[in-house]
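The step that takes the researchers longest sounds almost clerical: writing a folded protein down as plain text. Below is the pair of lines this work produces for a single protein:

——
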Amino acid sequence: MKKNSKYIVLTAAIALCAGSSLPFLAGSSTLNPERDSVKSEVPYCVTSSSVPDKITFAGQAIDLLRYDHRERMDRELMSFTYMHSTTMLMVKRANRYFPVIEPILKANGLPDDFKYLAVIESNLNPLAKSPAGAAGLWQFMPATGREFGLEVNSNIDERYHIEKETKAACKYLKDAYQKYGNWLCVAAAYNAGQGRISTQLQKQMVDQAVDLWLVEETSRYMFRLLAAKEIFNNPQRYGFLLKREHLYPPIPYKEVTVNTSIDDLNEYAKSQGITYAQLRRCQPLAARHFIEEQDRKDIHSLYSYTRGNVLQPAKDRCLQ
């Protein structure tokens, strides 16, 4: 029995060795890397971006050597870096909308860095609307929009009017700064509400919103804002390589005063040499195809595109 067992073991070992050699015996005796290796069809490399030691926002320096600050910043930088299409779109759109936002911020005495708040609120999509009902570049809720001077009703929605909604955002931000005296607290309040931020600052006995324990959305919001600034100021460092012609240019337009009813906006758009879709994209009408007589108090002007060269950016932005 022992002798037979030895034969069985030996036979099994020989069979195993032979079996493992079959792929090589059946073909070439040498492995051909070019033929036999699995290769990526797309040259691609995933790396971790470097987190700066510090960053400033509205003149306030944030220490990113502190481990919790650093890891929160790292998460948002990676999120922006590897959400390729979304980040690329935002950088392209910035060339169109920052020239509108920046002078309004300056005229209202607000730090230029708050233009990045619009970036993280709406991805710089002026037609953005959240499931909760917030709308526009600055994502105002209907009631908040009205509180800060925007007209929001069944006829018109000025949350989609870039200049007016930016001015309304300035009012909110300045009001919050009077309470906190700290711009990052103001940014946190824009997301979570002044009541919640004020309560938590007092309860947790800290002065900085970045030091608060908050719900994840607001906790990430502040570092998402900082990461947006970093990415937009150094796009090439994070792998976003754009040529001048890739950026979206400002769209030339003219204002037309409305002093009568318009029965059919489709026909009106055609008479202006544009489409109804173009007309709707560039001004804040409600979802209708006409303007009634009683609406004239609400609709002060219609924007319509002018013809001309719109392929050249007005200014080189996000190109280092």
User: Anything to note?
Assistant: Residues 3 and 9 are 10 Å apart (CA to CA). Confidence is low (pLDDT under 50) at residues 5-28, 296-300, 307-320.
